[in-house]
Amino acid sequence: MKKFLFATVALAAASAALAQQYPSKPVTIIVPFSAGGPTDKVARDLAEALRGPLKSTIVIENVAGAGGTLGAAKVAKAAPDGHTLLLHHIGMATSPALYRNLTFKPVEDFEYLGLVNEVPMTIVGKPGLPANNWAELQKWLQANQGKVNLAHAGLGAASHLCGLLFQQSLKMEMTTVPYKGTGPAMTDLMGGQVDLMCDQTTNTSAQIASGKVKAYAVTTLKPLATPALSKLPTLDASGLKGFNVTIWHGLYAPKGTPKAVVDQVNAALKTALKDPGFIKREEELGAVVTADARVNPAEHKKFVEGEIAKWTPVIKAAGQYAD
């Protein structure tokens, strides 16, 4: 018993000492996607807001590939000292169902640090679509069953996931058309080569405002305040009860990172999320900065566990997997 107590006290003392020394070198935030994309932009904005409260140089490292799983796996295997962090999106919840040979476990292999933001999504259609509102779109979909095609930006992309849930909620199968990214998918939608797409406001707001695509609904439970989107109904209020899809980002550390360090990073994150400059930059992206209990590690983890439970049956029912 004395040995156990001694070991516990020694561990607590070592953790406290590490926290006092932390950070002892630059902190690296790994982004599991290419530079220039939405997640990379969020990471760089967050790094700018974190430098002050964390009192450290912060380096962004892009480790792209395999739908974000390569970068996440690298962090899972990194030294658990708080100097290597992960900024990841909804892929933390969908990768267990999408990838059969996943080399990490999202729930078990990370310390959760807090949810950063959420990005709403919109249902948009080609400019020549005869439907001008959600009610008319529903009638058009019913009249054209088996003929409708739905674009997405690739397996596991936000538009792919939203499209799967959209079809299941409508109890209607559409011909899905995969693209290598949002750019070419949006180009073909604006050109009328595909009928519909569900994508993030960061990718659709400008096209909606300019009239280059038609907008029908938003995927959040509450209407959006953005001027170009404020008149759009929610899918939940339009008959698809419970439909709620956002693309969120969270911050993580390798499993085993001392609690004192986790607490220190979490405190810095909470300060960063209140930074007016960060909030403004995120609003410009169409994102909503987290301001609820999910900024706490336990609630962040609980939220992701709920997202895993939500998306796993959707993905498995569609039978769409990556190796």
From TrEMBL:
<dbReference type="InterPro" id="IPR005064">
    <property type="entry name" value="BUG"/>
</dbReference>
<dbReference type="InterPro" id="IPR042100">
    <property type="entry name" value="Bug_dom1"/>
</dbReference>
<protein>
    <submittedName>
        <fullName>Tripartite tricarboxylate transporter substrate binding protein BugD</fullName>
    </submittedName>
</protein>
<keyword id="KW-0732">Signal</keyword>
<feature type="signal peptide">
    <location>
        <begin position="1"/>
        <end position="19"/>
    </location>
</feature>
<dbReference type="Pfam" id="PF03401">
    <property type="entry name" value="TctC"/>
</dbReference>
<comment type="similarity">
    <text>Belongs to the UPF0065 (bug) family.</text>
</comment>
